[in-house]
Design brief:
Pyruvate-ferredoxin Oxidoreductase, domain 3, alpha/beta
Length: 186
């Protein structure tokens, strides 16, 4: 098993946190892990992305240009990373603010309306966990319990009271993810 993932969006959307939680979740499963963030000096509002590699084998380099999966949270990231998903790979995106939907037909594409759902439940802070839950539904190599353990390891103890709300958000994401077909959208 080897999974190379890019998560990309605006700073403040929890991009780096999602990557960190995935990385810790991989560690909980005794996988080899690489977590490599990239963000501009703006922090909130600027673009941010993180590359996560989870593997049963040693990881030779954290630098990759083609990904098995892309988790996309804004239009700029979709424009930049859609073409960098390996044929047969996965692209998961939040529909909020997307003006041009994915166009590829050689990858699996899924939508999650995480921004709308986090607003509906009146908890914008769990947006990224809804997205991560959708990803977990689509990729079964990490289980919910691994991610909850990853949350416990990645969150400072003063935020452990939020783990239950985040676990609930993961479950919401698993339930609201849906396939998208670029062919049908034409």
């Amino acid at each position: 098993m080897n999974e190379e993932i890019i998560i990309a969006g605006f700073g403040g959307q929890g991009v780096l946190s999602m990557g960190k939680i995935l990385a810790y979740s991989g560690i909980m499963r005794n996988l080899e892990v690489s977590w490599m963030p990239s963000y501009g000096p703006e922090m909130r509002g600027g673009t941010a992305n993180v590359t996560v590699i989870l593997s049963e084998e040693r990881i030779s380099s954290p630098i990759i240009n083609i990904f098995d999966s892309a988790i996309i949270l804004n239009q700029q990231s979709l424009d930049k990373f859609e073409r960098k998903v390996r044929p047969g790979g996965l692209l998961l995106y939040d529909t909020n603010g997307i003006t041009r939907h994915p166009e590829r037909t050689d990858i699996d594409i899924y939508q999650v309306e995480a921004a709308a759902e986090s607003a509906r439940i009146d908890n914008l802070r769990v947006f990224n966990m809804i997205v991560l839950g959708a990803y977990l539904k689509l990729k079964d190599f990490l289980k919910l319990e691994h991610v909850i353990e990853g949350l416990e390891k990645s969150l400072p103890p003063r935020y452990h009271h939020l783990i239950e709300a985040n676990a609930d958000a993961l479950k919401i994401g698993m339930n609201i993810v849906k396939p998208y077909s670029a062919e049908l959208a034409k």
